[in-house]
Design a protein that fits this description.
Layout (H helix, E strand, L loop, with lengths): L2 H28 L8 H27 L4 H21 L2 H7 L3
Helix pairs in contact: 1-2, 1-3, 2-3
Amino acid sequence: MDYSLLVKAGFMGFAACVGAICLVFFIAGNILKINRVRFNSVYLLAGIVSFLTVYLLLHVKIRSSGIEAPQIFLTGVIGGWLAGVLFGVTQFKRLLISFLQS
């Protein structure tokens, strides 16, 4: 088992997830002017957008790279995505709320 591929894929999934969540909250707060009361709704939307981002990233990366063990890569990316979603809800919540309008 290639642990370096698993760790790299995990970091890639985490970074893609947190980046997509931040982008959704930035757009929702600054362009759409959504207030802080709607945090749960915006976070659900951000979770869906981050999943679609990670799915497209997986699809492109596995096809273009020709990875020998796509199951290991898939496991790492999905694990990183789940870690990013949990990180966003627990540790990153204050920053995400600050993106929304008061």
